[in-house]
Amino acid sequence: MKASKRHLFIVTAFLVLTFGIVRGQEKITIVAAANLKIALDSINTVFKIQNPGINTQITYGASGKFFEQISNSAPFDLFFSADMDYPKKLEEKKLIGSKIKMYATGKLVIWSKKIDPNKSKINSLLSADIRKIAIGNPATAPYGEKAVESLKFYKIYDKVKSKLVFGDNITQATQFITTGNADIGITALSLVLTPNMKREGGKYYIIPQKSHTPLEQGCVILKNAKGKAGAVKFYNFISSKKAIAILKYYGYDTKA
Question: 3-state SS of 173-203?
């Protein structure tokens, strides 16, 4: 083999091994609720090892915004919502290609670097030291919607509503707290259990689930994925033992 050809072979092999360039990969576009970021990325890593011929691309954001995009013919293949309502609405619009699968139930927490919310629990939000409280936008983010439900359940919503600042999704709301743009916030347990959040050194208190309707999260294959075997494989993989173990590690409840 001549030197130039040998060099080309080595470079090509390096690209394949390093960047996973596989000829004939099936591209699967996934949109997912922001609370899933670390958990679903971890699940996707395992999935890719087992399915090198499938190129999964995941975008995270607010479930409500993805619902609007899908309703307007956005070319997504799979939708992982932070609730069951948005998938059901898509079903009514005849925009799904599978049954709605409840893959996990999330949990709300109060998180802060400024105070320890375990001391006063929900009443931590009433502290005189708290000027801004971050939550997800209740109009588009189910975790924000459930946060408002909890505040109303404990009859403190009217007392704190002037302090509320809204993130477009639960990840942005969490960033408001970590960057100091909010003193405290209501976020997802799955996010505070991530390595980056643990390094922040904040404290969290799990809000009792009796204070809000369950954060049951559903996923569906969308009509755009018709004929894509990779979409079906990923949809099924979310129920696998490995995926369930990862979801539980990040604080989700599952049926298994």
Answer: HHHHHHCCCCCEEEEEHHHHCCHHHHHHCCE
170 is in an annotated binding site: yes
Residue 101, H or E segment? strand 101-106
Class of domain 27-105+216-250: alpha beta
Q: 11 vs 8, 14, 19, 133, CA distance in Å?
A: 5, 5, 12, 52
Do residues 127 and 97 lie in contact, with contact meaning Cβ atoms separated by under 8 Å? no
May I ask the CATH architecture of the domain 108-211? 3-Layer(aba) Sandwich (3.40)
Residue pLDDT, tens place only, 96-123: 999 999 999 999 999 999 999 999 999 9
Residue 206 annotated as part of some ligand binding site: no
Domain with CATH 3.40.190.10 in the chain: 27-105+216-250, 108-211
The predicted model scores a pTM of 0.86
